[in-house]
Every structure is written in structure tokens, then in C-alpha cells.
Amino acid sequence: MGSSLDELPTMLEPMRVYLKRAAELRRTSSLAAFAVRTFALQVGLTHRERLRPADLSYLMSLMEELESDKAALNLSPTGEEQERATHDLAMDLYARAHAADRLDISHPHPSMKWTVVEAPRVAQAYHASAVLIDALRQFDAPPSEKVVEMQTAAHRRSQQLSAQLARALNSTPLSLIHI
Fold first, then answer.
1. Distance between CA 109 and CA 130 in Å, rounded?
2. 59, 41 in Cβ contact below 8 A?
3. Can you give the pTM of this predicted structure?
4. CB-based contacts of 58: which residues, under 8 Å, 6+ apart?
5. When comparing pLDDT for 39 and 163, which is higher?
6. 3-state helix, strand, coil in the chain (%, to 5)
7. 38 Cβ partners below 8 Å, 6+ apart?
8. CA-based Rg of the chain, rounded to a whole angstrom?
């Protein structure tokens, strides 16, 4: 892959959270992963007037990969498939995270299986949901107010849970980047 995360230029760092989630989601939903990578490209292009040639080369490589993926996925020009897949996956991840969340545990402890095994997955699912909802902004119809509220709640809970786990496990917080 010509546009790997290891090669991400400093000026394009805001794209990292989207590219990382897209790579994680590729096996789950190639359509949602494509939509998130496309949104990452849009984020990168917002900085185009300040980019160096190497930065632009990275964006061009990503653009070429997206064009190749678009052809392989046989997508319609409207983007409806990607929008639906991204929305559905975001809602599914949020519902799963919410169902597995243990709000009754305000102080996770390393001796608890939930703290060590499930809580990190819950935090990541909430964060992935928030990132997917953010990527929905690229489509014609902006996300509904209810979906935006869900995104805020998912992001807030992922950050809260990450901080609680860091304290409980005496480590640095999970690498959850603000969106």
C-alpha cells in the first residue's frame, strides 16, 4: 500500500484516526472502510495549501488506491451503498458497545475480567462508532441530530472508559484520538 500509516506525513496527522479505523474495519465492511478512507482524504485535502510535495504525493497515492478500490467494489456514483454501510456499522457498533458496557462499574479493577478483557473492546467499539458517524459528514444528507448526539455520547464514553482503564491498569490511556 503506497499510503501506509507509517508513512503519514506530519501535516496529514489529522487523517490518522480515520485511516487507522478504516484499516481495522476493512474485513468487517469494505464499503464502510472505503467511506472512512475517502473521508480521511477529504480531511487531508483541507490542508492542501500548506502541504509540501511529499504530503501531496501521499494524498495522490491514497487517491489512486481509492480509485482502484472503487472500481473493485463496483460502486455506484451516488455513494448510497457506502453511506448505508457506514451508518449501519456505526449503529451496530454503538449498540454492541452499549449492550456490553458496565456503567455500574465506576472504578474498574485489574482483578475484574471485564476490566481486562471487555472494557477495552467496549471503549474501542464506542470510538469506532464515533469515527464512522463523523465520516457520514461527507455524504449529501448530514447525520440527524439523534445520530450526532449518539456520536457525542460514544466519543465521551470511549474517552471516559479509556481514562478509567488507564487508572485501573496503571498505564497510559488507550490511543483514542479526539475527533
1. 26
2. yes
3. 0.85
4. 3, 7, 8, 9, 12, 44
5. 39
6. 75, 0, 25
7. 66, 82, 135, 138
8. 17
Separation in Å, CA 65 to CA 68, 71, 77:
5, 10, 17
The whole-angstrom separation of Cα 8 and Cα 10 is 6
pLDDT digits (tens, 9 = 90+) for 120-160: 899 999 999 999 999 999 997 888 999 999 999 999 999 98
Question: Would the CA dihedral through 142, 91, 5, 119 be positive or negative?
Answer: positive
Phi, psi for residue 154 in degrees, rounded to 5: -65, -45
Q: What distances in angstroms separate CA 38 from CA 18, 83, 108, 172, one per listed residue?
A: 9, 11, 37, 31
* Encoded amino acid at 11, one letter: M
State how far the Cα of 11 lies from the Cα of 40, in Å rounded to an integer.
13
**Residues 81-103 pLDDT 10s:** 999 999 999 999 999 999 999 87
CB 20 within 8 A of CB 4: no
Whether the pLDDT of residue 113 is over 90: the answer is: no
Tell me the CA end-to-end span of the chain in Å, nearest whole number.
Answer: 25
Identify residue 119 by its one-letter amino acid code.
Answer: A
Geometric angle at alpha carbon 79, from 73 and 84, rounded to 5°:
90
Q: Name the E strands within the chain.
A: none
Q: Are 100 and 122 in contact (CB under 8 A)?
A: yes
